[in-house]
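Q: Second attempt. The first request was missing the SMILES, so the protein and pyridoxal-5'-phosphate are both included now.
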Amino acid sequence: MDGDVANIPEIVKIAEEFNLITYIDDAHGSGVMGAGAGTVKHFGLSGQVDLQIGTLSKAVGVVGGYVAGSQKLIDWLKVRARPFLFSTSLTPGAAAACLEAFRIMENEPEKIAKVWENGRYLSEGLAKLGFDTGKSDTPITPCIIGDENLTQRFSKRLIEEGVYAKSIVFPTVPLGTGRVRNMPTAAHTKEMLDVVLSIYEKVGRELGVI
Ligand SMILES: Cc1ncc(COP(=O)(O)O)c(C=O)c1O
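A: Got both inputs this time. The predicted holo structure:
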């Protein structure tokens, strides 16, 4: 939720010890962690996690999802997974857009580096202004506001001022820990992020958050 990363090496160790299947939802990691290849690669654990799923809607920027695992598992899913069997497949246009996104990720690593740089810049800027940026290990940058109503008002004011950052409140997160979640991209410039920070400052002072 906040860009924090699970302790996958420990999970894999425990799974090995007790002969368990490991399954990772890397919706927020693919395209960002492990030079784009995901969180399993980030930890050098390729081949040691049984099943990885992810979305094609976040870093890839299209729609759909993927499952990666052994051939046996994929063959089984093809005949047993209801969402796969009873849904329309990706359109050719969406598939082509995904392939192009993968090509960009492989050939333009500077874009992935830029996401991380932007994440650091935004997070440091918000912290300097006095906001609580929680615990994120990735470019996802939460801004913890607390009270549910205040969080929603905060997000609404940000959107009115030109920053699209949605609120996340109970029951998605524990009561009293409402937050606004920011997702800088590789397309943001430093000038854009400075505008974001100045709007955060304005709204933060207006609503008494800082
Ligand atoms: C952890 C996680 N898994 C899966 C998904 C599903 O993504 P989508 O429905 O866009 O493919 C999301 C979306 O927010 C997510 O956060």
